[in-house]
Amino acid sequence: MRLSQYLLPTLKENPAEAQIASHRLMLRAGLIRQEAAGIYAWLPLGLRVLRKVERIVREEMDRAGAVELLMPTLQLAELWRESGRYDAYGPEMLRIVDRHERELLYGPTNEEMITEIFRGYVHSYRSLPLTLYQVQWKFRDEQRPRFGVMRGREFLMKDGYSFDLDEASARRSYQRMFVAYLRMFARMGLRAIPMRAETGPIGGDLSHEFIVLAQTGESAVYCDQALLELPVPGADVDYGGELDALIAPWTAPYAATEDVHDAARFECEVPLERRVLARGIEVGQIFYYGTKYSLPMKALVTGPDGVERPVHGGCYGVGVSRLLGAIIEACHDEQGIVWPEAVAPYRVGLVNLKVGDARSDAACAAIQARLAQAGIEVLYDDTDERAGAKFAKMDLIGLPWQLIVGPRGLEAGTVELKQRAGGERRELSVEAALAALGAAP
Ligand code: 5CA
Predict the structure, then answer these.
(1) What Cα–Cα distance (Å) separates residue 287 from each residue in 128, 175, 199, 204, 404?
(2) Which of 62, 276, 347, 428 allows an S-S link to 432, with CB 3.0 to 4.6 Å?
(3) pLDDT tens sequence across 25-52
């Protein structure tokens, strides 16, 4: 992609309304634009990151055996009256009336709708367990939308829902999601720690929040240092097998958000030198809620004994748009964002220091073609800005690699390869630079 034909509205100054680094950098790097309080347009560069995060989420959900579908953003109020949540949900729910005076709402979550879909098709234990998920926009009319995409009103969520015949089987579905979550956040370059949590308006008796430690996090959290060092399960995890042994090291050490924190237990169980008192960002939450929705909504399945019973459910949320904020909080420096490779909008930024110089233009065009051939995503700065501005912009948008090409270097037969993380620079021949990026001849 050529920058001269792109939309990348970067800002030199810090926007006054942004209080935390990720919000500042998302606005400055031209990733998002605020359209209303807590409502954002995703600009081209931001959308690319959002798509990469979504992709990792999908890959790990699919690996764990979940099946994707897509539900509408608008739902009938009737459906929520069945579960009793229409009135209970309060002012966070955006309520809408259509031209036929029918009451609708913009979904803040989808337990009711997925239960309605499930009961329409599934009636036997033979079809269980079943875990369905979607990646869809949600709306919650938060009283204080803030910190950009961290607490938005419209936000992108991955919401998954499991259906099982009994509690024991439902707990296994919960465990599969638990492991999938450990993997997906690690792949994005984050360490997310599962912490016991309250269930709130979703309901149920078992819940974990997945928390990324960050000074700017919204909640205070308490945990054992051991959780910061545990290895994350590999891609070869057997989701069909027993997951107890894999999960135990993550659930045994103390970890709790402030809502459920027990200071006496914390001090008794965790030696002083291993106590972590920090703030955290909740990037996901999982719940087992049993028959909370299947009972009132009559989602019944027949067991092997021929007896009908309400299906056992759990739900599994990931804050997909919030994750961009969390990743930036964890991965930035004074100059800007430092994207982990797995979610970077482009892998390489190609900088032409002298656009209009025939030799530089030709070298850049050839490099761009070679990178494209090797399937490496490249953003080519072919604008006529001065070098200093180009360098600052590349550092701000945080692509993992910068390939800097100018007449002086070409004269000597070299280009410069800079790694954004750490800032290491190397003068290399074009071929060596391409090889270093994985684009061998
Ligand atoms: N029904 C369940 C999960 S399927 C649910 O709604 N869970 S939740 O309320 O915990 O939301 C799931 C995730 O969405 C949260 O962990 C958080 O990462 C993200 N999220 C929640 N509210 C917001 C918001 N206002 N802005 C951005 N992300 C949010």
Answers:
(1) 18, 11, 7, 7, 49
(2) 428
(3) 999 999 999 999 999 999 999 999 999 9
